[in-house]
Design brief:
The chain is an alpha+beta fold and 154 residues long. Helix content is 19%, strand content 37%. Strands 1, 2, 3, 4, 5 and 6 form a six-stranded mixed β-sheet that branches.
Length: 154
């Protein structure tokens, strides 16, 4: 069975985030997950866990001739849970998580060769009012497939 390009891109993002570790020169160890259920019931918020959410795709401003071209949008929900034992402020911790993710994602903007580019968009802090805080990063991945085969990148 063929794997959709968007799934290969999402797995590349997950692998990249899992490589964000102090041993690799980053500020913390992050752990990426993808939800298996639309209601998020399988994703419990934990400090430094990053939830990868694939959303709707968009058409890019210009399309290639003889190909399908897309911008696939992903939201990266990085949980940064308030802690009395933390030595840095919550804003500092969220900024470090945001910048570690941005740094890692820009190391390979082709997402392992599956994409043309990775576009970093807004990052927004969140607080659900029940102790779950963090930062949401939006990225768009520009990719192209054969016009008659969404499983084959070009």
């Amino acid at each position: 069975m063929a794997t959709p390009i968007t799934e290969s891109i999402a797995e590349n993002i997950k692998t990249a985030i899992n490589l964000i570790t102090t041993a690799n020169g980053f500020n913390q160890d992050l752990s990426a997950i993808r939800r298996r259920r639309l209601d998020f019931s399988d994703c419990l918020p934990e400090d430094l866990k990053v939830l990868i959410i694939q959303t709707e795709d968009e058409l890019p401003e210009q399309e290639a001739v003889g190909a399908n071209e897309w911008l696939q949008v992903y939201f990266l929900e990085a949980f940064v849970i308030d802690s009395d034992t933390a030595t840095a402020s919550i804003e500092t911790r969220m900024s470090q998580v945001r910048d570690d993710i941005r740094k890692k994602l820009t190391e390979d903007t082709t997402r392992g060769g599956y994409a043309i580019d990775t576009i970093l968009r807004a990052a927004t802090p969140f607080d659900d009012g029940e102790g779950f805080t963090g930062i949401e990063l939006e990225i768009a991945v520009h990719y192209r497939t054969q016009w008659n085969d969404p499983y084959t990148k070009i």
